[in-house]
Each structure stands twice: as structure tokens, then as C-alpha cells.
């Protein structure tokens, strides 16, 4: 069985009506929801309040990546929102992450601050050839996780395959948030480094981000129930 409070449902919609429909369908479960760029840019803060009013914890996934001052000020501007988790890109560097941590510490709700390491849609070949980072993905993810921890962040986003390496370097309390989760026989879509919910749990993930397998299912409640059973 997978505890509902470990599941973060990715609300990857551009229209608020669709997001409200899924929020209403899943209401009553101790879940998190993830509001990403697409939804936040189209609805603004309203969606955060709507999700909180329905009892969900909210992860605002804006993946901030800019100069330290801009990221710090952006997080300051978000500090009045009732969010429980927010994130930046570790590739923005330690100074940027420190400024982000400082801004979050001063905010009213003190959300968890996490860093994206390597996107789960990135392959080793892409990382080597396009980002010009040599070696394998796990080494790069572990390096970014260490940098994030040293910069005062609470955890990282990574693939479940990298959780053990992260925990080894950063300790068991350092949070791992893992997308790239697919039920057995589920479609991979554009995700490259995937596991099933049960595998992710065994690998020690703290939170699993699951989008399309729930939000694009013909019956989202049924899809969630199957996932909670660990299938
Ligand atoms: O639909 P799916 O389950 O693939 O959704 C995964 C979600 O996790 C998407 O919202 C995507 O933006 C996000 N994400 C990811 N990989 C990362 C960070 C975030 O897939 N490294």
C-alpha cells in the first residue's frame, strides 16, 4: 500500500475548469497537488487557494532559475501564498539557492524548498552532449543534491533511481520528490527514467509526483485507488 500523503498529483492543465474538476474528484484524500507553470501562469494564485480550500497540500512547481537577486525577490513575492513546497533549479548555483532559502525562511508559511537536479525527461546522452556534463546522470544528480543541501535546501527533485545515492550523500532526512512514476503497464509518455509506485517506495522516495496516469485516466479516482494499492 502507498500512503496517500506521499502522492503529489500533477495538475498539468492550462484551464482552471479542468483543474477544479480533478480537485473535486480527488477531494477527501490526504493528497498533495502540484501546480506547475502552465496552470499558475493561466490562473494565478486563485488555484492555490482553491486547492487549499479543498484540503490539499500544495507544491508550487515553478522551477525558478535566474540570478540570485531575481530568484530571492520572486520567492519573496510568493511568500503570502499558502503553499507547502516550492522549488528552484540547482543548476542556478549555490548563491541562487542560498538567496532562495533566505527568502523562504522569512515567509509566513515556510514551505519546503527543494531543487530540481536533472529533469526526469533528460537522458545521459542529452546531458553529456547538450549540457556538456560528463559522466552518468546519478553522479550529476548526487552532486546537485549535495550542493542543494549545503545551500540550506530541504531536498531535491530526482528520479526514484537516484534516491539511494542522494540519501547516502545527504542523509535520510533530506527529502526526495520523484516524478517519472508509472503504474505497471502504464504509458511512459515523455518520461525516460521511470519506476512503478511500489518500486519508488522501496527505493525510499519521500514524495511521488504522478500526473497523466491519474489526470488523463477515464476514471481518476479508480486510477488513484490502483496506485494506492501499489500496482
Ligand atoms: O504526467 P507525469 O506523471 O509525467 O507528470 C510529471 C510531472 O512532474 C510534470 O508536471 C513534470 O513537469 C514534473 N517534473 C518532472 N521531472 C522533473 C521535475 C518535474 O517530470 N525532474
Strand/helix succession: EHEHHEHEHEHHEHEHEHH
Number of strands: 8
**End-to-end gap:** 9 Å
Gyration radius from CA atoms, angstroms = 17 Å
Q: What is the CATH C level class, in words? A: Alpha Beta
Give the strand line-up of the largest sheet: 1-2-3-4-5-6-7-8
Structural notes for this entry:
The protein has 231 residues and is α/β, with parallel strands linked by helices. The protein has 11 helices and 8 strands. Helix 4 packs parallel to helix 5 and helix 7 (137-150) runs parallel beside helix 8. The relative contact order is 0.15. The mean pLDDT is 94. Cytidine-5'-monophosphate is lined by residues 10, 12, 36, 116, 119-120, 157, 179, 189, 191, 209-212.
Comma- or semicolon-separated keywords:
binds cytidine-5'-monophosphate; alpha/beta; eight-stranded parallel β-barrel; single chain; TIM Barrel; 231 residues
SSE blueprint:
Elements: E1 7-10, H1 16-26, E2 32-36, H2 37-43, H3 46-53, E3 57-64, H4 68-77, E4 85-89, H5 94-105, E5 112-116, H6 124-129, H7 137-150, E6 155-157, H8 163-170, E7 175-178, H9 197-202, E8 207-210, H10 212-215, H11 220-228
Parallel strand pairs: 1-2, 1-8, 2-3, 3-4, 4-5, 5-6, 6-7, 7-8
The structure holds cytidine-5'-monophosphate.
Amino acid at each position: 500500500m502507498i500512503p496517500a500523503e506521499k502522492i503529489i498529483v500533477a495538475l498539468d492543465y492550462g484551464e482552471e475548469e479542468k483543474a477544479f474538476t480533478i480537485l473535486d474528484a480527488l477531494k477527501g484524500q490526504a493528497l498533495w497537488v502540484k501546480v506547475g507553470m502552465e496552470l499558475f501562469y493561466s490562473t494565478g494564485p486563485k488555484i492555490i487557494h482553491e486547492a487549499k480550500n479543498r484540503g490539499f497540500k500544495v507544491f508550487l512547481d515553478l522551477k525558478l532559475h535566474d540570478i540570485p537577486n531575481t530568484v530571492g525577490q520572486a520567492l519573496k513575492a510568493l511568500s503570502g501564498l499558502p503553499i507547502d513546497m516550492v522549488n528552484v533549479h540547482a543548476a542556478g548555483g549555490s548563491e541562487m539557492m542560498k538567496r532562495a532559502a533566505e527568502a523562504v525562511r522569512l515567509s509566513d508559511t515556510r514551505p519546503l524548498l527543494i531543487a530540481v537536479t536533472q529533469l526526469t525527461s533528460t537522458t545521459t546522452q542529452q546531458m553529456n552532449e547538450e549540457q556538456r556534463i560528463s559522466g552518468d546522470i546519478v553522479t550529476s544528480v548526487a552532486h546537485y543534491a549535495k550542493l542543494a543541501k549545503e545551500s540550506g535546501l530541504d531536498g531535491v527533485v530526482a528520479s526514484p533511481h537516484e534516491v539511494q545515492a542522494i540519501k547516502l550523500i545527504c542523509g535520510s532526512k533530506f527529502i526526495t520528490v520523484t516524478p517519472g512514476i508509472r503504474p505497471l503497464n502504464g504509458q511512459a509518455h515523455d518520461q525516460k527514467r521511470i519506476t512503478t509506485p511500489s518500486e519508488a517506495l522501496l527505493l525510499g522516495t519521500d514524495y511521488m509526483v504522478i500526473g497523466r496516469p491519474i489526470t488523463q485516466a477515464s476514471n481518476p479516482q479508480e486510477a488513484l485507488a490502483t496506485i494506492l494499492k501499489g500496482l
